[in-house]
């Protein structure tokens, strides 16, 4: 029943295949929605760039020196942690005379490692000037705190070495052995050399580290950022719409292919037209005269098809069943009535829908059984089937029916239920009129069930057969 481009979930198990053509067709059908989502993303991006400006950020760059036996990568990670401490935040806030908690001010700055020895310090502010002040204050506070850490480490190391030196000096004063004295003097001198080396190393690390690029706030490029935000919004909107369309296509149970509809309705799709009633703003456009590519032309095509069905019907009557598009079915009945009236035919229209006609089309005056007599040439019955009532009540008017189906609106279960109600009432479903046909559908809605119908028709009791008193249309 289905080929690879068929509706995914209307196919029987084992034939539910998805390929690029199937997804491409779904995207093509929803291209206007995708374009609208992309346009909405563009507008939203531009709006956010215009009305929610990003806080200015200033940057400063510092060069950090390390000892000869230190791993620069690990040391730089340690310095980043030193930068993002409350001690640095408190010192910078005090220098800026800001009445803010250190933990709150921590969120205003951060560090970015540019290399093993270069660190970028960034700080945000309400304006470029304030951001620059904050970046400079944080940089100064960080370098001072880092120097204090190294000096504290140096102080502890010198203190420990001096304690060793004092111990050795006391031992030297108490010894009388020349050899021992020489050894102690050597150790004392070594310790003194270690102290000097530690001081030199610390001074080189502290004094060799400093600011390379002072704090500055890059010039704002409002237009450039607005364009970037707009492009980002456009891409995000289009991507979201495309993903949504693909997901809906994968889980959809609605049927749109002619071959699938013919198989489910068990009747041929004899007429396939586009969207007869415009949607949205297109309804406001002035209607033109009938043309081959205009909706009025489609209505005339449907009218000719219905008239041909009447010509070969068992009685001059026809049941028009609207499965999911009552406005179009109503317009089709009115078009057929005008065609027949123009040929001098008396036409009665029976409103068996059980509802008021849609506002989109002029109302049909429902005929009753008392209004129809032998002078009427044709009876047209407009119906909407209800599973609770079935279609038995339509059998008194005609044995022939035609169904109006909209592509992609009804599920396989809904189409099968309507077909079952029509067949159970011994109505012959002559054809299906497909509205809003998919331009990518290349299947044929061919179906031949005449033998099955003829077998059912012979089982109908004579008193239930429709009256053939009225002459058939020539």
C-alpha geometry:
rod-shaped
Q: Quickly count the helices.
A: 13
Which fold name corresponds to the CATH topology of the largest domain?
Answer: Rossmann fold
Query: What is the total tally of β strands?
Result: 10
Total count of domains: 2
- H and E order: HHEHHHEEHHEHHEHEHEEEHEH
Bin the strand percentage. 5-15%
> What is the CATH-assigned architecture of the largest domain?
3-Layer(aba) Sandwich
The main sheet orders its strands as 5-10-9-6-8-7
Largest sheet: 6 strands, parallel
Which range best describes the helical content: under 10%, 10-25%, 25-40%, 40-55%, 55-70% or over 70%?
Answer: 40-55%
- Considering the protein shown, what is the CATH homologous superfamily of the largest domain? P-loop containing nucleotide triphosphate hydrolases
Q: What's the average pLDDT?
A: 81
Q: Distance between termini?
A: 37 Å
Structural class: alpha/beta
Radius of gyration using CA atoms only = 44 Å
Q: What are the defining features of this structure?
A:
single chain, 474 residues, alpha/beta, Bacterial polysaccharide co-polymerase-like, Rossmann fold, 2 domains, four-stranded antiparallel sheet, 13% strand, disordered N terminus, disordered C terminus
Please tell me about this protein's structure:
The chain has 474 residues and is α/β, with parallel strands linked by helices. It has 2 domains: 57-219, Bacterial polysaccharide co-polymerase-like (2-Layer Sandwich); 256-280 and 291-464, Rossmann fold, CATH 3.40.50. 48% of the residues lie in helices and 13% in strands. The chain has 13 helices and 10 strands. The chain has helices at 20-29, 31-51, 72-83, 86-96, 102-105, 128-174, 178-208, 222-251, 258-265, 295-311, 326-342, 412-424, 450-457; strands spanning 57-63, 109-113, 118-124, 210-216, 269-272, 317-322, 347-352, 378-383, 400-406, 428-435. The strands form 2 sheets. A 6-stranded parallel β-sheet has the order 5-10-9-6-8-7, with helices on both faces. Strands 2-3-1-4 form a 4-stranded antiparallel β-sheet. Strand 9 (400-406), helix 12 (412-424) and strand 10 form a beta-alpha-beta unit. It is rod-shaped and about 145 Å long. The two termini are 37 Å apart. Residues 1-17, 280-295 and 455-474 have low confidence and may be disordered.
């Amino acid at each position: 029943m289905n080929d690879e481009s068929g509706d995914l979930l209307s196919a029987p198990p084992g034939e539910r295949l998805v390929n690029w053509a199937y997804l491409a067709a779904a995207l093509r059908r929803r291209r206007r929605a995708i374009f609208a989502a992309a346009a909405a993303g563009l507008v939203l991006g531009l709006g956010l760039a215009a009305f929610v400006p990003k806080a200015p950020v200033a940057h400063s760059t510092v060069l950090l020196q390390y000892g000869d036996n230190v791993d620069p990568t690990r040391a730089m990670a340690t310095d980043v942690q030193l930068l993002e401490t409350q001690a640095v935040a408190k010192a910078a806030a005090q220098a800026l005379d800001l009445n803010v908690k250190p933990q709150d001010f921590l969120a205003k700055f951060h560090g970015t490692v540019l290399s093993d020895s270069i660190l970028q310090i960034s700080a945000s502010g309400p304006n470029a000037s304030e951001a620059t002040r904050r970046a400079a204050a944080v940089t100064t506070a960080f370098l001072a705190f880092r120097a204090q850490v190294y000096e504290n480490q140096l102080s502890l190391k010198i203190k420990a070495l001096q304690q060793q030196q004092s111990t050795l000096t006391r031992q030297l004063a108490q010894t009388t052995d020349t050899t021992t004295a020489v050894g102690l003097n050597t150790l004392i001198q070594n310790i003194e050399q270690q102290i000097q080396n530690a001081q030199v190393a610390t001074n080189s690390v502290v004094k060799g580290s400093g600011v390379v690029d002072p704090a500055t706030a890059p010039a704002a490029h409002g237009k450039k950022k607005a364009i970037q935000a707009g492009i980002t919004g456009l891409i995000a909107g289009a991507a979201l719409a495309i993903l949504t369309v693909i997901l809906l296509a994968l889980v959809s149970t609605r049927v749109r292919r002619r071959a699938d509809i013919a198989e489910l309705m068990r009747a041929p799709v004899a007429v396939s037209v586009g969207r007869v009633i415009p949607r949205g703003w297109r309804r406001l456009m002035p209607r033109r005269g009938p043309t081959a590519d205009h909706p009025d032309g489609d209505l005339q095509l449907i009218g000719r098809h219905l008239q041909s069905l009447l010509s070969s019907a068992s009685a001059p009557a026809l049941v028009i069943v609207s499965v999911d598009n009552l406005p179009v079915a109503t317009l089709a009945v009115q078009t057929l009535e005008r065609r027949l009236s123009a040929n001098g035919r008396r036409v009665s229209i029976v409103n068996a829908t059980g509802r008021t006609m849609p506002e989109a089309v002029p109302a049909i005056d429902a005929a009753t059984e008392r209004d129809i007599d032998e002078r009427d040439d044709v009876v047209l019955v407009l119906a909407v089937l209800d599973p609770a009532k079935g279609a038995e009540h339509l059998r008194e008017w005609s044995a022939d029916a035609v169904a109006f189906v909209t592509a992609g609106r009804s599920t396989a279960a809904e189409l099968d239920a309507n077909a079952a109600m029509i067949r159970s009432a011994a109505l012959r479903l002559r054809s299906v009129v497909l509205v809003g046909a998919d331009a990518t559908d290349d299947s044929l809605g061919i179906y031949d069930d005449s033998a099955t119908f003829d077998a059912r028709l012979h089982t109908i009791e004579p008193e239930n057969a429709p009256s053939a008193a009225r002459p058939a249309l020539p």
